[in-house]
């Protein structure tokens, strides 16, 4: 079973974005959405730093590899790794596959330079083209952005693990809790990693942490996107910004409230809540280990 990538419309996404009673930000008109609890940035930096040092030491690894897109999550992940391990033990990769990716790669190169880490840029388009020419014609990638995007994400992770194997390092994933709960990543692509330093933090909490790390404003201000398609952004794909998404997930998943109760408490349209929870349920397979025949025994 494959999955939509960022850049494809989610379950009910159009209804969430334009349904009756839904404002441009995905909430009920005129309603204020309760924020996700504020994180203690200093405490989180210490917690994540200790986690990284402990994990790298336990694996007897030389350091870590981070795929850097120039976006918020990968920048925060790299900055935390540098803070915990030192720049010489952090290796960055920029892996563009199109013109949008090329621009993001230039940002990643500038950020890596500011962090003092080595970064290699590998253009994936030749690999994508070679892959497309090698597989059977019925697997043609040209007319299917979902298949192509998932392939690119998996090629990125293949390069990351090649670098990790070559340098005796661990691969750091950059997925946050919001993305994990929504399945907003590619299985065995950006969802594959040895460690997930941000996996317990919602996207809005990552922003708070980024501010404490002095992440440049051009990163903080950039709309969240996977960079597969021109003009693509998470807000459009999810039908709401993370300021709405995160409280919905927190109440429904962490606190166990039913969808109608979540909508009522937050003042968010029922359609938006239902769409987000449908996405969460449909992506359960991404968060589970592959099943075996013995699992029911």
**Percentage of residues in helical conformation:** 40-55%
Trace the largest sheet across and list its strands: 3-2-1-4
What sequence of helices (H) and strands (E) makes up the elements? HHEHEHEHHEHHHHHHHH
Number of strands: 4
Structural write-up:
The chain is α/β, with parallel strands linked by helices and 297 residues long. It contains 14 helices and four strands. The protein has a four-stranded parallel β-sheet with strand order 3-2-1-4, with helices on both faces. Strand 2, helix 4 (99-115) and strand 3 form a beta-alpha-beta unit. Helix 3 crosses helix 8 (203-212), helix 11 (242-254) crosses helix 12 (259-266) and helix 12 crosses helix 13 (270-282). The two termini are 24 Å apart. The relative contact order is 0.20. Residues 4-24 have low confidence and may be disordered.
